[in-house]
Amino acid sequence: MAFYTVLDENELLALLKRYGIGQLSSCTGVSDGIENSTYILDDGSSHWILTLFEDLSAAELPFFARLMTWLHDHGLPVACPLADANGMTLQQLSDKPALLFPRLSGQHPREMTSGHCIAIGDFLGRMHAVSCAYPEQRDNPRGTGWMEQSITRLGSLLDEEDAALLAAQVANATRLRTLSLPQGLIHGDLFHDNALFENERLSGVIDFYNACTDMLALDLAIVINDWCALPDGGLDEQRVQTLLAAYNAHRPLTALEREHWRAILQLAATRFWLSRLLVEKLPARPGLNHPHKPSSEYRARLLHHIR
What we know:
By secondary structure, the protein is of the alpha+beta class.
């Protein structure tokens, strides 16, 4: 189950008043998140998403709010935080930092098609192309140092084979980051449950809280590892090529990126195998589990790329 911060009704209504929102007809918690507490708000005619941040601090959030606003202003279908009557986007609710968004239309795709892959490849290529002009940077909090620290934390919870696999991928990450591959702003977590579609039309991309500055091809590999996945750990090659073609129309991969593409796919798989291992073996909150995102899925993906 998801972790929730319980809302105080009077505090919530006082916040919404600053947005010109009156009485609500419903306030429903979203049950499939683990990092934030998310509520769907409805006044009978309009809908909003209220997110309370369990881990990110109020000092960290302005970067993401500015980024989402900037991308929205550059014509990308991105959820953009709303400002209140005083021009403030960052709020405080139940002692947690919070943002309010309009609720975007559409649903998360359940079974990815070539049409979905065209749309998300087009989005990511456009985002990478325009974000080269974004004036801010943020180090990747899930970079090589985090990998090393996470493996140390897991320690004896890893068997010999997994420890060796992860050690090899730390070396892979270290080598890739010496190659001067094109860098820029990445989403960092653009799985299919962070995109909304109406049929095969992309209506919005959400959850930019892993956004940072890193290898652009790493972001592309993260997307391909999810959107083109097969149940056995492999990739659907037709979807891969469709997605790559849509991406390359806006930012063609360089010769160096193509040369090291398999290693980049391995790094992208390792990042999520490792983060899911941490959730499974060292949960931040006792009793919290995430059964629909098992670490074994990304271990299999890594082994596929190694083979």
